[in-house]
């Protein structure tokens, strides 16, 4: 039971103060006039003012509440290194035993796992949530058992009691890590990009030498080894070998005695892109489609176009030498002998043999294709004539032979069944609304894939691989009608873009491909594209060397997909038949392993304001002492807890000290007494 004197005035305090001033003034006046009853009058005024103040004696029935001590147990990834789990378990057991013996104390154990994604140790967030669930007036202390590597200090709450840190790890710990900076998401194929690497030792590192071995591999290939200096930034020029995603792995072999090798490897995924697409367009004669080809190619800022048109119409026979008909000289030797390998794509638009390009030059074009070049032929009536470029050395690389028949008939281009599976034409929408073409050259396919058809299902667009290169043959010169919007038009620009990118061997348009895409965290989507009706199971090789097979489901013609969640961070290898791919899951350098040496410097701004303590578990577990608020909370071998003396009020009773009848009686007696005293005088 606890008693307290309270005041519950019957009138506002300002009015009560005013009455007190008036009463004091009256007493002073009575004293000044020499009235003998001034003392009794003053006492009566005090009694009345005291009654108006409403003095109350309050009695509370209180039940004491226990103190609460919060134990923050760091169970993040960095806490699983070396013998830190055993240190943590031993320290928790000893602390809980000492706190249980303290009496009137409750323990709140808060486990801190890895943060979602790559956010590291969210210690302050966990502490904020724990404090929100407990009355602040009962918190006697906070003890964190951790390596001190917290990554959310911006979430530090206002602490109601001192915080202490018991450090795991050992003073002899040391670690080596690999840091990769300046890693762009994209790089131009064939041009070097500079990455900055650094091999860094931290902790009590031994003096083993000034260099460390570094291994570099691309797409899981055979690694190359180098010796690099320790503790210095290294500028590494790197040239991407191909377009699309390039997975580059940097590895420093594990050294004897280092804390972990989880930060010795860095995965960088960079997309290789072409700087510019160099295109040579040769038009056999002026016609509406030629200008359309030119406008389409010039509209793309990433295309460098060289365009030549043969101006002399085929029916004109005026005896003028061919070499004198060009507005500028046609540098045939320079283009088709000396610089042909500089072009990424050569387009023959309604071109036929006229003696301008000798057989030697066309033979060089055939070799250009076999060595990896790309040729697109837009065939007009010339392709079916005796002067067709098919009847030249180009015959060796063209996928179809003309029958010499030109069909002048209205038709709508359609995607073939095979074209529905081919990435160049697979997902074109609204084919039933495309505008018609008016002419088609009849072809007899010899090789390749027919992805579009025309009149009576005759081949309209054929794609073929020749040697290291690729060839596309379009059996009509009326694709320009789509660009003009004739009867609704069609996707000529998109079709040309896909054709160009397929012939440039861009990975996203490969008809036989296996790759994976990271969707979120450690989850990836595995994609297999093929022209076949069925595929086999995909074998996944994890970073630790173990394997697993999964089955992909067909989501659209020629496209099979499945999702997979990798348990570990690192390089995953995928294989299905002859197709292989690699992908890296997780961050290039996980945040939990950026710094692994235990330290108190990170949490010092949280511990120092309330004068908490830091102790290494390997040295000792400090004893517990009670301290007053504001006093030092730690000392040699001990940490302090602040007793809160919190309580719960169960019952409250109040009793007025001056009952009204007593006030009336006392005041009346004093007033009458003063009046009688003055009356006798």
CATH level-3 fold name of the largest domain: Rossmann fold
The CATH superfamily of the largest domain is known as Class I glutamine amidotransferase (GATase) domain
> Which CATH top level class of the largest domain fits?
Alpha Beta
Could you list the spans in which at least 5 consecutive residues all have pLDDT below 50? Answer: none
As a percent range, the share of helical residues equals 10-25%
How many DSSP E strands?
37
User: Which percent band covers the strand fraction?
Assistant: 35-45%
Largest sheet: 8 strands, mixed
Mean pLDDT: 85
What class, by secondary structure content? alpha/beta
Global Rg: 45 Å
Strand order of the largest sheet: 16-15-17-18-24-23-22-20
Domain module count: 5
Count helical runs.
11
How would you explain this protein's 3D organization?
The protein has about 675 residues and is of the alpha/beta class. The protein folds into 5 domains: about 1-60 and about 650-680, no CATH class; about 65-170 and about 600-645, Rossmann fold; about 175-260, Immunoglobulin-like (Sandwich); about 275-505, Class I glutamine amidotransferase (GATase) domain (Rossmann fold, 3-Layer(aba) Sandwich); about 510-585, Immunoglobulins (Immunoglobulin-like, Sandwich), CATH 2.60.40. Helix content is about 20%, strand content about 35%. The protein contains 11 helices and 37 strands. The protein has an 8-stranded mixed β-sheet with strand order 16-15-17-18-24-23-22-20. A hairpin with a 5-residue loop joins strand 10 (about 210-220) and strand 11. Helix 1 runs antiparallel to helix 2 (about 40-55), helix 2 packs antiparallel against helix 11 (about 660-680) and helix 6 runs parallel beside helix 7. The longest helix has 21 residues, at about 660-680. It is elongated, with a radius of gyration of 45 Å. The two termini are about 55 Å apart. The model has no long low-confidence stretch (mean pLDDT about 85).
């Amino acid at each position: 039971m606890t008693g307290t004197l309270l005041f519950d005035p019957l009138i506002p305090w300002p009015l009560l103060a005013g009455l007190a001033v008036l009463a004091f003034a009256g007493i002073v006046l009575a004293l000044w006039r020499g009235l003998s009853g001034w003392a009794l009058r003053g006492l009566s005024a005090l009694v009345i003012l005291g009654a108006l103040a409403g003095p109350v004696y309050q009695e509370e029935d209180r039940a004491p509440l226990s103190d609460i001590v919060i134990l923050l147990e760091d169970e993040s990834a960095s806490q699983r290194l070396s013998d830190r789990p055993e240190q943590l378990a031993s320290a928790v057991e000893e602390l809980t035993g000492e706190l249980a013996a303290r009496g009137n104390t409750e323990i709140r154990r808060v486990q801190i796992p890895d943060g979602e994604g790559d956010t590291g140790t969210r210690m302050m967030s966990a502490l904020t949530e724990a404090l929100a669930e407990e009355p602040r007036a009962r918190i006697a202390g906070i003890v964190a058992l951790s390596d001190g590597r917290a990554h959310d200090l911006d979430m530090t709450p206002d602490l109601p009691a001192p915080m202490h840190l018991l450090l795991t790890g050992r003073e002899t710990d040391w670690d080596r890590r690999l840091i990769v900076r300046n890693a762009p998401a994209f790089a131009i194929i064939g041009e070097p990009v500079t990455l900055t690497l650094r091999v860094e030792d931290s902790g009590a590192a031994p003096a083993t030498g000034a260099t460390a071995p570094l291994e570099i591999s691309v797409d899981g290939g055979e690694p190359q080894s180098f010796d690099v200096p320790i503790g210095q930034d290294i500028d590494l020029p790197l040239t991407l070998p191909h377009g699309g995603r390039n997975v580059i792995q940097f590895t420093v072999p594990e050294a004897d005695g280092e804390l972990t090798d989880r930060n010795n490897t860095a995965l960088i995924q960079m997309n290789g892109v072409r700087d510019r697409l160099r295109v040579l367009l040769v038009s056999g004669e002026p016609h509406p489609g030629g200008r359309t080809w030119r406008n389409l190619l010039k509209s793309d800022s990433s295309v460098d176009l060289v365009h030549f048109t043969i101006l002399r119409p085929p029916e004109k026979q005026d005896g003028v030498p061919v070499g004198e008909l060009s507005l500028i000289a046609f540098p045939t030797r320079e283009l088709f002998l000396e610089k042909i390998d500089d072009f990424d794509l050569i387009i023959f638009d309604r071109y036929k043999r006229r003696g301008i390009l000798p057989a030697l030059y066309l033979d060089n074009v055939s070799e250009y294709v076999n060595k990896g070049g790309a040729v697109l032929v837009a065939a007009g009536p010339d392709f079916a004539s005796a002067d067709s470029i098919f009847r030249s050395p180009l015959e060796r690389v063209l996928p179809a032979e003309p029958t010499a028949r030109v069909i002048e008939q209205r038709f709508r281009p359609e995607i073939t069944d095979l074209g529905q599976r081919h990435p160049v034409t697979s997902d074109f929408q609204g084919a039933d609304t495309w505008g018609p073409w008016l002419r088609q050259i009849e072809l007899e396919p010899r090789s390749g894939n027919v992805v579009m058809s025309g009149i009576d299902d005759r081949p309209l667009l054929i794609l073929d691989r020749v040697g290291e290169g690729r060839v596309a043959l379009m059996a009509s010169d009326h694709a320009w009608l789509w660009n003009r919007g004739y009867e609704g038009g069609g996707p000529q620009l998109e079709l040309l873009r896909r054709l160009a990118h397929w012939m440039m061997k861009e990975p996203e348009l490969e008809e036989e491909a296996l790759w994976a895409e990271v969707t979120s965290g450690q989850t990836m989507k595995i994609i297999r594209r093929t022209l076949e009706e069925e595929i086999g199971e995909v074998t996944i090789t994890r970073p630790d060397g173990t394997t697993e097979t999964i089955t992909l489901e067909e989501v659209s013609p020629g496209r099979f997909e499945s999702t997979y969640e990798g348990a570990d961070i690192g390089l995953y290898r995928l294989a299905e038949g002859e197709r292989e791919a690699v992908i890296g899951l997780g961050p290039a350098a996980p945040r939990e392993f950026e710094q692994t040496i235990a330290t108190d410097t990170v949490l010092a701004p949280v511990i120092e304001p309330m004068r908490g303590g830091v102790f290494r578990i390997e040295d000792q577990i400090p004893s517990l002492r009670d301290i007053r608020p504001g006093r030092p909370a730690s000392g040699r071998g001990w940490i302090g807890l602040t007793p809160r003396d919190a309580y719960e009020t169960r019952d409250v009773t109040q009793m007025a000290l001056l009952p009204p009848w007593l006030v009336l009686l006392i005041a009346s007696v004093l007033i009458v007494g003063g009046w009688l005293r003055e009356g006798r005088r």
